[in-house]
């Protein structure tokens, strides 16, 4: 199995469907666009050509095979066009849906529950980034700030993290917070974590952000670092 598709098979996605999608997406991805997660439809009956949802850092792409799988339709929606996302868990799988700012409603049913939860969380992360005014691409925040201002923010964040280090126990599951830069202290550990562990780590950082224990800029840095291993 090709290495580039292994990371998208953690929740029992159909390997054939993933391979077909990724091979076609190679020519469709834009500059600095990265695939974050792929969910594959799984109907109760045998589905030879399931629909799929591809989450990237720039858009949602709906993939619909046609002509007995010989061709495929791709429909994409930029994150800044998305108004809201929803997940409805049913007895057999889940239904993932989202609405656009032009009042369109798109949904795909029979998504395995764990996959539906993960694409819902990924979508929430991207929409939160838009709300905070940070572009959804791999570029750093400093690229969008005037010279000198980025240095000021970096100094403020370092002081804030130092104060957190005094109240967070040494046995905390977030050892990288003491430095404010997970890439310098946790890169080796992140590379050894499973996809589920990386996802859980990202959720823990989100809880810290929601509780006001870390700054938005720090959370964005941690998220970017973790997503690079997913």
Kindly describe this structure:
Helices cover 40% and strands 21% of the residues. It is of the alpha+beta class and 230 residues long. The protein folds into two domains: 3-112, PH-domain like (Roll); 141-227, no CATH class. The strands form two sheets. It has a four-stranded antiparallel beta sheet with strand order 1-2-3-4, sandwiched between helices. The longest helix has 19 residues, at 113-131. It is globular. Residues 135-145 and 147-188 have low confidence and may be disordered.
What's a quick, concise take on this entry?
This protein is of the alpha+beta class. The protein contains 8 helices and 7 strands, in the order H-H-E-E-E-E-E-E-E-H-H-H-H-H-H. The protein is globular, with a radius of gyration of 19 Å.
């Amino acid at each position: 199995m090709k290495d580039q598709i292994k990371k998208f098979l953690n929740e029992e996605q159909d390997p054939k469907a993933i391979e077909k999608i990724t091979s076609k997406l190679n020519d469709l991805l834009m500059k600095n666009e990265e695939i974050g997660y792929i969910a594959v439809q799984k109907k109760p009956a045998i589905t030879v050509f399931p629909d799929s949802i591809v989450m990237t850092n720039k858009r949602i792409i709906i993939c619909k095979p046609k002509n007995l799988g010989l061709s495929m339709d791709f429909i994409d929606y930029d994150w800044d066009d998305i108004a809201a996302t929803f997940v409805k868990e049913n007895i057999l799988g889940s239904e993932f849906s989202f609405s656009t700012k032009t009042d369109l409603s798109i949904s795909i049913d029979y998504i395995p529950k764990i996959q539906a939860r993960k694409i819902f969380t990924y979508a929430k992360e991207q929409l939160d980034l838009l709300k905070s005014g940070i572009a959804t691409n791999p570029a750093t925040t400093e690229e969008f700030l005037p010279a000198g201002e980025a240095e000021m923010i970096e100094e403020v964040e370092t002081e804030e993290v130092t104060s957190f280090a005094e109240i967070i126990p040494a046995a905390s599951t977030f050892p990288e917070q003491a430095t404010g830069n997970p890439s310098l202290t946790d890169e080796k550990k992140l590379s050894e974590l499973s996809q589920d562990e990386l996802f859980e780590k990202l959720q823990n950082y989100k809880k810290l952000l929601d509780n006001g224990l870390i700054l938005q800029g720090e959370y964005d840095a941690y998220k970017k670092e973790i997503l690079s291993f997913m």
